[in-house]
Amino acid sequence: MNFERIREKLNILADAAKYDVSCASSGSDRANKNQGLGNASKMGICHSYTEDGRCISLLKILLTNHCIFDCAYCVTRKSNDVQRAAFKIQEVVDLTINFYRRNYIEGLFLSSGIFKNADYTMERLVAVAKKLREEENFNGYIHLKSIPGASDELMYEAGLYADRLSVNIEVPTISGLKLLAPDKKHEDFTKPMLKVKNEIVRYKAERKIIKSTPKYAPAGQSTQMIVGASGETDKDIMYSAVHYYKNYQMRRVYYSGYVPVADDMRLPAIGSQVPMLRENRLYQTDWLLRFYGFAINEILNKEHPYLDMDVDPKLSWALRNLHHFPVDVNSADKALLARIPGIGMRSVDKILKARRFRKLNWDHLKKIGVALNRAQYFMVCDSRHWERRDLDAEKIKGMILQTSTGKFRNQYSTQLSLFN
Amino acid sequence: MKPSKTLIYDGSFNGFLTAVFVAFDEKINVTDIQKNGQGQNGLFSETETIFTHVEKAKRVWNGIRNKSHNAIANVYFAFLSETEGVELMLYTYIQKLMATTLGKQMDYSDGIVLYIDQLAKKVGREKHRMEAFVRFQLTKDDIYFANIEPDFDVLPLISKHFRNRYADQQWLIYDVKRKYGIYYNLDHVEMVSLNLKEIHFNKIHKSDAFLSEEYDYQTLWNDYFKSTGIKSRINPKLHTQHVPKRYWKYLSEKKEAV
Q1: What 3-state class would DSSP assign to A330?
Q2: Could you tell me which CATH number the domain at A3-299 has?
Q3: Mind listing the pLDDT tens digit for each residue in B44-58?
Q4: Cα distance from A40 to chain B (closest Cα, Å)?
Q5: Is the peptide bond before A326 cis (omega within 30 degrees of 0)?
Q6: What is the model's pTM?
Q7: Among residues 53-82 of chain B, which lie with CB inside 8 Å of chain A?
Q8: What are the C-alpha distances in Å from A5 to residues A9, A13, A88, A223, A392?
Q9: Where do the CATH 3.20.20.70 domains begin and end in chain A?
Q10: If we measure between CA atoms, which residue out of B66, B63, B69 comes closest to residue B23?
């Protein structure tokens, strides 16, 4: 191993890959075969966390940062003056195996800049995965990037070796894409996505009949959208996310606050703040859609194209729909319990079990872990104390904000701080 | 009147289950269940020493498991927390579980049930952390070696994970605090105790037990750790929340920060 050269390449190519926020290693239960190396953990394992608090679970690198495209938002775009490097296939395999054996990682996340053309690049990515699986008997997690515009045959082969495949949409609207990535067509993104989705559906169906059907991308597909680069609304982003969840059966859509990497008239300037709070609110909305039984038009619609920044989307929905409340926690059904602000799905589950034994009061709920500072205005329980005043939405919001703190509060508070 | 007794067991999980068996069997009014050697006798209660009996322990294990799979996991996990006084809590928990007519349901409005559930969750979290934070270092004898110092006694819980995953390499995970380890010899996992002269941290304290190649990989990993972070998003509070400081000395990527 030429240590210094590898070290240099790793620094360049890991640095270039870091803007991909996904580092999930969950969703696959690939077992260890023939006393080989590795398996996949269904729930995923984060082996470390970066100093910005994101999970490190995979060796996330680019095969190369040479690229023929010139997408404005991307750090490896053709016109950007950065140092370029490329890994050999064997080098990626060695790094992955050696990191894996030391329990640093769950597997490999391999992406790439596009050199020559889409198929040529995709072929190299598949070759790495194939080598790991077939020559090294590696059963850990592999996440491959589907290169926009790659052919169906290559996408098919990729799914045979990888656990997850992903194409990053990056720009949620077609008009935004035209502006920021003029070389790419929307269809280039959706074509490989569709192929993989169809294969997953087909393999699943076959598996029902023949149990020994090999796995095909068992952890499904994911995608990522940049937030705050092209002036899109929260509604644009979330409706587009719902579209991908529904039509492409995405396991996850990631939202990545745009980190300015270029001086470009079309984009926020270098040094402007990363919209982390907005990103956070989008993830909260995503969770409400996937786990809490909300429909997207309840949260975002024509009248409300943006999410509230000062309160979470569930509370914001509840404040707009006070006629549903208060809810009696001792009799309401699961779907309704899940809609009370301050009660998460774990609490819902505990409440449902506990209330078979006795009627619950504030004390029980507090111990179970309900955030009463928010929940108290929206529920009644087995107690004579509950919010009897006829409060309007503004009033409730004010009282909740007064009795709570939030780490992003200083970003949107209009109140002047006394000691600054 | 039922006899009132403090039960003394040998500290093993089977020993504890035997104690539970005896308590149910002889209808003892249990005042406490204590580990051998750290007993504090109550003024007015007798003590009885329990001899571990695997068959009896198994009956209790099966009894709880038939009632609820979740409960047996909770009991085992909470036991491994080594919390003082957890045995009596667990005994009460098992009593409540056996008395309930509502099948598998858990009464989360009950203090003890909730406490045991939360304790088990803590141990589960520590188990998951150890599966993540173990950092193997390759010794000259071709064994992947790691020290750990977990809050709870989680080695028995993580052994299966590592056996399934690293089936083709010899590895040894050593609990520095409890002074025992688990070793996989390419066939099965066994418990070992070592006479460890020094704790092998990582590249800052180099040891000649490891190849120089080992330190190269640690350097690469540290570099990777640095380059994958995004500076404009830095959030130290969130970082330490995910990777609490007490684990840092065994993580090569955090060694410089200790």
Answers
A1: coil
A2: 3.20.20.70
A3: 678 889 999 999 999
A4: 8
A5: yes
A6: 0.91
A7: none
A8: 6, 12, 12, 32, 65
A9: 3-299
A10: B63
